[in-house]
Amino acid sequence: MASTSDIKNGMCIHHNHDIFQIIEFQHVKPGKGPAFVRTRLKSLTNGKVLDHTIPAGHKLDDVRIERRPYQFLYQDEMGYVFMDVNTYEQITIEGSLIDNSGLLKDGMEVEMLVNAEKEQPLTCELPQYVEMEITYTEPGLKGDTATNTLKPAKVETGADVRVPLFINTGDFVKIDTRTNSYVERVKK
Known about the structure:
Blueprint: E1 2-3, E2 12-15, E3 18-28, E4 36-43, E5 49-55, E6 59-62, E7 65-76, E8 79-84, E9 90-93, E10 109-115, E11 120-125, E12 129-137, E13 150-155, E14 160-164, E15 172-176, E16 181-186
Antiparallel strand pairs: 1-6, 2-3, 2-6, 3-4, 4-5, 7-8, 7-10, 8-9, 10-11, 12-13, 12-15, 13-14, 15-16
């Protein structure tokens, strides 16, 4: 059990029969009345974010969560198959546990958040940036670099990304996996 004084960003707790991760928190001591902690919680099972206020000194049921390196192997009708880099065990998880699963490439290293008490995978986090080849986009025009206009493009995994007008088919681009957005062109 933990107390509200132990709260920190990234801490995971049981709340309303679910596991939540604390995204941000703020200790508040109003001029009148008891102190409390204002928190923003993200569910690790469905991704919903909620605001919650906890009275100061309240006990929290914390959960031991571990970050483990996994390698993406392939996708089949059962889900996405990953291999633990240390033990070589394979696990299958459903696509709803992966943010931006369209950007997963075979052999990609990811981090899995695992409930250490139950050995249950909770979420899969891709690297912050990935480099992908553009497999299809409308032809670019020479000199179209001054505007911030974007056009649709398809990358090697089949995901859709919006890229600047000067990007052509066959170019390599860096993509931010958190927002699924173009960052820069990569020279290969």
